[in-house]
Amino acid sequence: MQYERGGYDSKTDIYCPMYVGYGYCEKYSADDALTKPFIQCEYAHAMGNSMGGFKEYWELIRKYPKYQGGFIWDFVDQGLLVRNKEGREIFAYGGDFGRYPASDHNFNNNGIVRPDRKPNPHASEVRYYHQNIWTALTDTVRGEVEVYNENFFTDLSNVSLYWDLSENGTVVAEGLVPDLVVGPQQRVKVLLEGYRFMKPAEGRELTLRVAYREKMPSPLMPPGYDIARQQFVLVPYGFSDVLAATADAGENPLPVKKEEQLACLTLTAGKMAVTFNKSTGWVDYMDVEGRPMMEAGYSLRPDFWRAPTDNDYGAGIQRNMAPWKAPGMQLKKFEEAACAEGRQVVVHYELPDVKSRLVMTYTMLPEGRLVVNQHLIVDKNAKKMPGLPRFGMQMVMPGEYDIVEYYGRGPEENYSDRHSATFLGHYIQSVASQYWGYVRPQESGNHTDVRRWTVRNANGYGLTFYGPKPLECATLNYLTADLDDGMIKEDTQSHSGDLVPRPFSVVTIADRQMGLGCIDSWGAWPMEKYRIPYADQSYTFVVEPSR
pTM score, two decimals? Predict the structure, then answer.
């Protein structure tokens, strides 16, 4: 018997509060004087692009026997399929029905699946932490793992163990352990049949994936369905000095060519030409072998904002972090000179709205690669300045570049506090598929731990981005402004079905963006470790032709 409003001291058999944070959960669970089982009657509010930090809840649940889980709010987005005035399908919500003026707007759309029962991207994270078979890597050379059957009553006689080894995301070996003898709550060491450790080529990453598959059908699951899976990095990726010349650059590459006019400056090397606007400092034009790589009217510019999620609106982030949405950038100095690596453009800005300075450094290497460094210097004496939603850059490519090919976490979108269920791999996807249609438009399409990100056309022409450490990247057919409902989301009454894709590809190459959070959608922020503080920030990435 349980009753949430009864608290701890009433006759309720369990203690079942709702929407309490991680610190409270751990404090209660670690206190031996408190003996009632702890189950949140509601937690992990799954509204919009959410479920960041679900991992931390389940680390506590598995750490403390007294903490026995909770009930996610909730299962399904509660929207109604209708057509808008243009005839496009949308999921209608409160406020869309004029004769019923009282509403909570899109508040009932807080499920792990959409109204049409298609799983939202965060459903994968829920599935991952709810799985009941876990693996520990015990011997990399021999291929030995420890299998933990977390089930209380079911053995693993109906489960086989599939494994594969991947080098930079491409499978190079695989095998199967057809039978597992692991009883409920048992841990058993298992040798992966056919496994042989192979050291990858220098700089390349080696990963091991294990997946547990049902041998015979069970309710809702066909034979071969993965009921649990994990990935391990055996040999980490070899990030390198991005200013080092590439192996195929040749011993004597042609020098970087400089062409200067009154309003612009162009640097050309290898297959690539980059043009700077001297009055703004931004890269306004880029081509590869004469093919334009940037949509006219757009520049490669710093990007400190994201379209607010439902959790962001609940926490007031659209107001608290508003200075970073479009901070004024006053050009103070534009410099260009030869350097040891090639030629370099250094641009200095003042950002008075956020009491900061920004230094952009662009280094064109002789083989035709542009190395970009963005360095933010904040005022250490400034008081009550907000953190950043994102620290990155954005550009717009013509619509023919409609394919993303990347080595990073996928295939679904993922974020710093929600990426356990998305594995490192080599993925090829359409730009059109990158935006997920949440009931209300918001931030979507991000990928973390990106080693390389390519935006190209069907013939392979385009641009590749990478850095000396993992990046966070996205490419959408929408500008951030298309997904941003402003200060008061209820004023817009927007729906993803209302959106009309732009005829170009919006590319975001970021150091990071803040996490999503999931404690609640009416005040809680993402965990501090997943935020970007008001502090000096710097990151570097390379832009080069994809072929």
Answer: 0.95
